[in-house]
Structures are given as C-alpha cells and as structure tokens.
Amino acid sequence: MHKKPLESGWYIDERCTNCDVARQLAPDLIGEADGRSVLLRQPRNPSEAARLGAAAHACPTRSIRPATRRLDASPDPFPMALDDTGTGAGAVYLCGHNSPHTAGANSYLLRRPDGTLMMVDTPRWGPALAARYAELGPVTDVLLTHRDHAAHGRRYADRFGARLWIHEGDLDAAPDADRILRGTEPAGIAEGVTAHPLPGHTRGSVLYLADDRYCFSGDSFYWSRTTADLEVAHSVTWYSIEELAASLARTAGRLRFEWVLPGHGDRRHLPADAMARRLRDLTARVGQLRPRPIDFAAVRW
C-alpha cells in the first residue's frame, strides 16, 4: 500500500506569541529561543509528524506551517483523549484549537458516567469545531475557570444548549452566565464535580475537581517542565499573590487528584499522594512570595 510521504519544510512564523502550547505537544521538535517557539528539527517518522501536526492544530496564532503554508485538516487529532479510565467513571479530552482570544489557553472536555460531557474553558469558536466536539456526546455545562478564558463561553453554551458557569468575582467577563459561583467555599456542579473558588490569579478564579482524579486548575497553578514541579505564574498574577497564597492554604487540604490540567502551562499525571505532597510544598512556597510587576517573559514553562 502506498504511504503518503512525510511533510517536510515545516516552519514557525513570526506571529508566535510564546504561549507554550506547541511545546507541550511536541517538546522534542519545538523549543524556545529569544522569546518564541522555534523548530528544532523536521519530523523523522509518522509519529513525530503526528505530534507536530497536533501542535500546528492547537497553535492559537496558526504559526506552525508546512512548506506549502496550507495546514491539512485531515490529520487533525482533536479532541484528543488524555485519559480514559476504561471504567465509565470519566475520560478527559484536550480540545486543541486554542484561541487567541483566551491568550492561547488549553481547554478540555470531561466525560461523565452517563455519557454527557462538560467543557472546561473554551477553544477557538467555530460551528464546525462545535459540531466536532458534540460528536463525543451531549455537552451539559461550560465551566469557566476565570475571566481570561471566557471569550467564547456563551457561544459554545448556546450551541450545546448547556449551562455557562463563572464566579461572581469575574462576572463582568460573562455577565450572561447561567450559573454564578459565589464566595470561597466549594460548590457542587454535578455528582463527582466540585468548584473550588481560588481567588488570586484573578478575583474570580476557580478550579474544578472531578472524581478525585482531575484538577482543572485554570491559571492558578500548572506543571512546569523547567522545574519538574507544580508552579504558580507569579509574574502574571493579575489580582493578588497574597490572595492566591491564602486560597491555596485554605483549599489544598481539600483537594485530591492525579491529573493537573491547567489553562496555561503543562499537564501532568502522578499518583494522588505524590500530587498532594507537591501541592502542599507549592502552598508553602507561594506563602513566601510577594507582589511583583507583570512580566510574561518570567514564566517558567
């Protein structure tokens, strides 16, 4: 059988905003230099070509291109399964197609035991993309972690016939939300899914915990490949690093999870006890931090 030859001549153009999305998906092919992503080498086999293609379909600025400059939609891998327990208890998919209107944030689909799904934050908007996600099953809820990721929430919620959630602290970013989270105490979303308000990155930041397995942390904390640990984006904490420290101190002991699934920064799967230990250590470190000027270049991806 004839095999399609590997694409050659891939490149990354000057529109790159250094959001790290592509490097998460193809870290062996894409690196960082001078404040932007750079192609380290061309793919050498179909597996590497698939990883580079995934990075290209996730890139919010569409900066990753083959020599033809036209990205072939046929190998689009999204939504991409990240975890499938095989028990019916849940599965998580990465949406890809990150949006420039959410600063290139990652978004996810969470399958529930009854076959419905929840969308956590939003990819770029498009009717064809919405239809693609809906093929996995009915989407009942769109859960926004904070204001920076709210751009397409209403459009996706209306397309799916879903409820749109946001915290009151960031309500001005989604004033037509259907469900409003309030205060700092945990709130049930559905069986097995809990919202934990975590003011700090923004006034209305929230993380969503599902099945004591998945932590959708928004921009509150993430896995850093640089430090190989949980970290906070200290230099892009818009509201208050002291509030974030207080939020973590109040909340960390209530959280048990194996997957950290952030909006920005990398994902990671570890045993729950190991993740709990790292979260305790992070909470102690953040308690020592003090405010600093906003500086995107200082984030340790």
What can you see in these coordinates?
By secondary structure, the chain is α+β, with helices and mostly antiparallel strands. The radius of gyration is 19 Å and the shape is globular. Residues 1-6 have low confidence and may be disordered. The strands form five sheets. Strands 5-6-7-8-9-10-11 form a seven-stranded mixed β-sheet. It has a six-stranded mixed β-sheet with strand order 12-13-14-15-18-19, with no helix packed on it. The protein has a two-stranded antiparallel sheet with strand order 1-4. Helix 5 runs antiparallel to helix 6. The chain has helices at 21-25, 46-58, 127-134, 153-160, 241-251, 272-286, and strands spanning 11-12, 30-33, 36-39, 64-65, 80-84, 91-94, 108-111, 117-120, 139-143, 163-167, 179-181, 187-190, 193-197, 206-210, 214-218, 222-224, 229-231, 259-262, 268-269. Residues 104-264 form the Metallo-beta-lactamase domain. InterPro entries: Metallo-B-lactamas (IPR001279), RibonucZ/Hydroxyglut_hydro (IPR036866). This is MBL fold metallo-hydrolase. It comes from Streptomyces telluris.
Give a summary of the structure in a few sentences:
By secondary structure, the protein is an alpha+beta fold. The chain contains six helices and 19 strands. The strands form five sheets. It has a seven-stranded mixed β-sheet with strand order 5-6-7-8-9-10-11. Strands 12-13-14-15-18-19 form a six-stranded mixed β-sheet, with no helix packed on it. It has a two-stranded antiparallel ribbon with strand order 1-4.
